[in-house]
Amino acid sequence: MSAEARPPRHNPLQEIFWTRTGLLLLVLVVLSGVCLTISGAMPLGMGRNLVNAAGTGTLVSAIVGFGQTLITATAAQRALVSPVIEESRRTLRELAAEYRSMNKEFFPTHVFEATVQPDPALNRLMMRDLHATRQYFFRGFSARYAAARLLLSQAEWELRVIIADPRDATTLSGRARYLLRHEGAAADADRIQRELSHEVSMGLIGLYLARSRSTRIDVTVIADPPLDRLEMFDDSVWIHLYSDVSSVSTLYPRTLRFSEGSFLYNMERVEFLRVCQSRSARHFQLAPDTTRQEFMALYQKVTGHPLTEEVFRELETEFHVFQHNFSIAASLEN
């Protein structure tokens, strides 16, 4: 806090002279001075002695009264005003702590506005959360970004992902509608649906490549997942608001970060784990020792299409290009 912003300190001397007690002391001092002046001009005798005694007594009374008033004012300051000030400060601290608790429970810690390119500040903060976590939960259309983040990191986590079912036409069309609004009248719905299906395939390849960065990767495939993407760590949850109509004109939507312990964090975690245990969803698992043949069998179960060596190499190359471009755009280069 700057010197200009500090409240003025109370000086007992100033308070004394701005009160009626101070005025009385001033009158006594003036009266004493007048009496002493007059006695100095008088001839020797009883009258001079009386006036001199009156002036001296008045001066002594003024000095004693001044000292007593100073001591009394200081004691009153300590006994009455200081406890009130301290109690007010304690009450304000309690109110501030309560408001901080309410903010943590209901308000985001960070808000990142929609952009046409990956936001470096957003991604740096998210990578910091990733480095400090043990569990990484991801829910989105494809898992490309989750796999890219894992490959850009060095630690090991337990990764759980919920992705869209590429075999379900409703799932593709729901996500396609968002991209159609983004691209406008020139958009081609069939082309967009093919690209979305391709993104899911590339995301699966990315998860396979990142399997060594996780103790285990649980993949849950559901039909028509929520449009908003979710990324959850031990201490935070990130919501990418693709459902926000004001973000339609940008490729990367408005994003909110909530801390662990907030209402939204707890609600999303419960819902995420519920979906991961749902019997209506399809569940798969990748381990660090999953072989390519085992992955190819898993890929066919998820997508409904066989995976040849040639297609695998093409998707692997495309994913590495995607990861490289994303790391540059988000300023996450190693």
What does this structure look like?
The chain has 334 residues and is an alpha+beta fold. The protein has ten helices and eight strands. A hairpin with a 3-residue loop joins strand 5 and strand 6. The two termini are 40 Å apart. The N terminus is likely disordered.
Proportion of β residues? Answer: 5-15%
Number of helices: 10
Oligomer: single chain
Roughly how much helix do the residues carry, as a percent range?
55-70%
Low-confidence parts lasting 5 or more residues at pLDDT below 50? 1-7
Distance between the termini: 40 Å
From N to C, what is the helix and strand string?
HHHEHEHEHHEEEEHEHH
* Average pLDDT rating: 80
The SS-based structural class is alpha+beta
Specify the biggest β-sheet.
8 strands, mixed
User: Whole-number radius of gyration?
Assistant: 38 Å
Number of strands: 8
Write out the strand line-up for the largest beta sheet, numbering strands in chain order.
1-7-6-5-2-3-4-8
How does the overall form come out from the CA principal axes? rod-shaped
